[in-house]
């Protein structure tokens, strides 16, 4: 195996372990490989079917490299943890706003929250009596209940 091929494979493994795990929380390794291959395929197409190591390196963990550069060429555990936490919470915030934002303007209002709660209440109130009874709640799934020892079917002990 050529030295450049070995180096490329080692770099992919390192990038996947460090950058992939850092930026793709809860994403399985198959998805990470797929995303990496998509970036590499795009780089190949953009460069007439071949890429140099420098081009390959540019494709891999640009965000991680930017963090290092933004922090004077060195990244501490605390700095990386802060960046990861910020990225994670920004992803969560985008998902929450997308879920609740009824006007599609990228903001969250009290009306958006009330509207979503009303829809959810209507889904759970199966007999439309304006009340959710214990038997109307799903036994499992997203709104499922976890029974504790001794509970009867009405949730009473």
From TrEMBL:
Signal sequence region: 1-24
Coiled coil: none
Domain of life: Bacteria
Alphabetized Gene3D superfamilies for the sequence: EF-hand (1.10.238.10)
Keyword Transcription regulation appears in the UniProt entry: no
Keyword match Plastid: no
UniProt region (Disordered), positions on chain: 131-157
Keywords: Signal
Protein name: EF-hand domain-containing protein
The species this protein was found in: Mesorhizobium salmacidum
């Amino acid at each position: 195996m050529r030295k450049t091929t070995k180096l490329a494979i080692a770099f992919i493994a390192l990038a996947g372990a460090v950058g992939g795990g850092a930026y793709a929380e809860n994403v399985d390794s198959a998805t990470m490989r797929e995303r990496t291959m998509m970036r590499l395929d795009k780089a190949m197409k953009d460069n007439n079917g071949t890429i140099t190591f420098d081009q390959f390196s540019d494709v891999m963990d640009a965000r991680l490299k930017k963090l290092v550069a933004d922090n004077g060429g060195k990244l501490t555990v605390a700095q990386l943890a802060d960046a990861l936490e910020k990225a994670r919470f920004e992803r969560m915030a985008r998902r929450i706003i997308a879920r609740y934002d009824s006007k599609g303007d990228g903001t969250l209002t009290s009306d958006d929250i009330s509207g979503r709660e009303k829809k959810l209440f209507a889904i759970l109130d199966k007999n439309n009596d304006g009340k959710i009874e214990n038997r109307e709640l799903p036994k499992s799934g997203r709104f499922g209940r976890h029974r504790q020892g001794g509970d009867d079917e009405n949730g009473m002990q």
